[in-house]
Here is the input.
Amino acid sequence: MQSNPENRETPRFAHEATVMIENYPSGKYHEGRMHNYSRAGMYFESDFKPTVGTDLFIGIEDSPYSSGHDVRRARVMWCNKLPDKASFFYYGVGVKYY
Here is the structure.
């Protein structure tokens, strides 16, 4: 049995890609950058600070899931302010796909 120190449902893999985030309730769009993904979710950074439980549509350029562009529906599981100068963005966000 493999160890899973992060207690994730599925393993995460490093992959950087530009993402376009649609805040589903408001219909507003925000830019961000994916840093890792799994079959069940992803981590991205953005200047957008979504509330935990918010539904999002995430467009992924250079998707690791399919050739080219892809869109995923996800729910925000957590959102943390990033340390100053740690990123070009202000927030790190973990989402789980539907």
User: Anything to note?
Assistant: The mean pLDDT is 90. The two ends are 27 Å apart (CA to CA).
